[in-house]
Amino acid sequence: MSPQTPQVEVDPVxxxxxxxxxxxxxxxxxxxVTGRARxxxxxxxxxxxxxxxVTSTVARGRVTAVDHSQALAHPGVVAxxxxxxxxxxxxxDNAELVILQDAEVxxxxxxxxxxxxxxxxxxxxxxxxxxxxxxxxxxxAELREDNAVHRPESVNPDLPTDTEEGxxxxxxxxxxxxxxxxxxxxxxxxxxxEPHAVVARWEPDAEGPVLTLHDSxxxxxxxxxxxxxxxxxxxEQVRVTASYVGGGFGSKGEPHSHEVAAALAARAVPGRWVRxxxxxxxxxxxTGYRTATxxxxxxxxxxxxxxxxxxxxxxxxxxxxREYAEQTATPTRMMYAAPHRRTTHRLARLDVTVxxxxxxxxxxPGMFAHEVAMDDLAIAAGVDPVELRLRNEPETDPETxxxxxxxxxxxxxxxxxxxxxxxxxxxxxxxxxxxxWWVGTGVASATYPMMRQPGNQARITALPDGCYAVSIGAVxxxxxxxxxxxxxxxxxxxxxxxxxxxxxxxxxxxSATVAGGSSGTSSWGxxxxxxxxxxxxxxxxxxxxxxxxxxxxxxxxxxxxxAMHSFGAVFAEARVHRLTGEVRxxxxxxxxxxxxxxNPRTARSQLLGGLVMGLSAALLEESWRDPRFGHFVTQxxxxxxxxxxxxxxxxxxxxxxxxxxxxxPMGSRGIGEIGIVGTSAAVLNAVRHAVGxxxxxxxxxxxxxxxxxxxx
Length: 712
Ligand code: MOS
Description:
The protein is an alpha+beta fold and 712 residues long. It has 3 domains: 132 residues, Aldehyde Oxidoreductase, domain 4, CATH 3.30.365; 179 residues, Aldehyde Oxidoreductase, domain 3, CATH 3.90.1170; 331 residues, 2-Layer Sandwich (Aldehyde Oxidoreductase, domain 4), CATH 3.30.365.10. 24% of the residues lie in helices and 24% in strands. The protein is built from 17 helices and 28 strands. The strands form 6 sheets. A 7-stranded mixed β-sheet has the order 4-6-2-13-10-11-12. α15 crosses α16. The longest helix has 20 residues. The chain is globular. Dioxothiomolybdenum(VI) ion binds next to loops.
């Protein structure tokens, strides 16, 4: 942030009638449905060189030789880069990004060479002709309870690894009801519609940026600041744009090795554009994934289900080359009241690709485990699952003791139960057979932290025609940010949304943080409000065309004094075929408390998408790693199944009316991730209720049910 940028104490946005709250259509809807929206790979000029990646076929070892001769003999091939010929990178502690610098191989699928050619076909054929030989070393690629022993320094993003309060063991010994079980979630891979892609040019003598990247990323400034030091450049010498992005789910939240590969390739052919498209198959090896988790949970309670002790040991895995510790047990720290609590995280360090963010990292697998455990407790105590959650509602944040900003889980549960018809639920499991289908219902709570990132600036400029240019380097990854930020700017300036000309997604614009952690709208929107209020203070209601103000918001002090979270309640109906074990989910309803909803149309889409992804995780998604070879063998959409239209039936997302001024001046909190949280647990709890079988892992697939079904 430049020192002269004013930091503004932001007032609430209170303009009536308001653009916020309107279901505006997406500002870029027409561009997208007519195919005019240009995604990263489409930014390449027709004479761009094509890069194709060569990736390791061993899980651990050394490259002993790379034979370029056949590849270079192939028509159209221009160059082959390997660790002996690629441009040098600066030292870095991020071993995921340091590629083609030495012969070491840390995981199967790691970039070991790349081919540049005049056409995509020649590049691909050339890559197949590069002869790589390896000296293989023994590897370990399987997560087990006995090898998850490494204690990380902290867990994502920078949270305590372990927490302890009271005496869990004594409380469990004294408890009238005890649950002690293990819950498992599968490896999952991010599969945004648009695979990762980047178009790069290196111009050492240019007056402008040395490196230009048109990238498919969730954060342009983040890419520039991560790549610049590796390349020996200042961040200002790296320009990154991301005009349209077809989803990310976290996999585009931080740069991965393919972006470095594109930069190295471009540096090898100065002045020429290089285009690099990551294939769907390569994504499973190089753009992050959700670690599998093993959650060992113990709950102690009084006979009425009121918790006295909560313990959650999360076992998961990281890559030996770079540590990533998923914060699986962190929602357990704040979700329910209990005087005695313990959480830990331990990792198996494996010779595998680097895990990373996937929609609600931590909350998604952690709340799955905790919310299925809550149903175990409900069954053990003979208490209705909704009632059990109501009885364990904490007055203040159990982890920090701070007051809540606006915890309204009880209203979500009650309103959801009412709308879903929960009161008609039989208390017995396996009680309803409708034709060939066992029918059950389940519930789970959802939560997600509210985050507003520092380091955002926005610029407001008066245009000649009474309109305003609003500029910020934020990225719309398909969420609707382009639409919503204009609505926020309009209300903050007190003018119609049609007068707002929004510019985003370029590092030449004021700095913006990642479209991640459900923090985008909160962070960027607050900066826009700050800039608008400062603009009015500077220039009044009738500014001269051309005048401009850049500002950022002052520190978010309420985040120090309040526990800031969003909440939700998810209700599912499951039907299980009595002979085949096929599971269908005819109804999936979520009720959320997420602060003010700025655009119901785009917000509902986020929440529904999260619900679908949670359903998909419950029934379908699994990246299946073969430990003998160390890679995910499911590496396309034929073998890695995601929910499609036929899997989704009656899906609903509702929310409470709110205006959370402690969170942001817009009153909003963030909606990108909470939809996936708890959803898999609600589905699994419904399946358990349908068939009366204790199930504690996802995905739950027919093979786990067949043979165990009632009557079989
Ligand atoms: Mo999201 S996993 O924070 O991009």
